[in-house]
TrEMBL record:
Domain HTH cro/C1-type residues, every copy: 13-67
Gene Ontology MF term list: DNA binding
Record bears the keyword Cell division: no
This protein's name: DNA-binding transcriptional regulator, XRE-family HTH domain
DNA-binding listed as a keyword: yes
Keywords: DNA-binding
Highest taxon of source: Bacteria
Organism lineage string: Bacteria, Bacillati, Bacillota, Erysipelotrichia, Erysipelotrichales
Record InterPro entries: Cro/C1-type_HTH, Lambda_DNA-bd_dom_sf
Length: 80
């Protein structure tokens, strides 16, 4: 069973990818990853490293903090 955090991240990325008119293969190639790797991210099967999340957000032109908040976590900026 996959954890809810990973599933929510995957759903958010899937929606953003579709809004950008990209296939899973195209997005994977944009960040130097395989289609299979990206499919597993969308399905919530794998943990997403920060560096990969950052690359995906840049490719999709989305705010990484919005991704974190959608997934139920805190944003990536330290509290002041």
């Amino acid at each position: 069973m996959y954890n809810n955090f990973n599933l929510r991240i995957g759903q958010y990325l899937k929606n953003a990818r579709k809004k950008n008119g990209l296939t899973q293969e195209e997005l994977g190639k944009m960040i130097g990853k395989s289609k299979a790797w990206y499919v597993d991210i969308e399905r919530g099967k794998n943990n997403l490293y920060f560096s990969d999340a950052k690359s995906l957000c840049e490719a999709l032109n989305i705010d990484i903090n919005e991704l974190a908040k959608y997934a139920g976590g805190n944003d990536f900026h330290p509290k002041k």
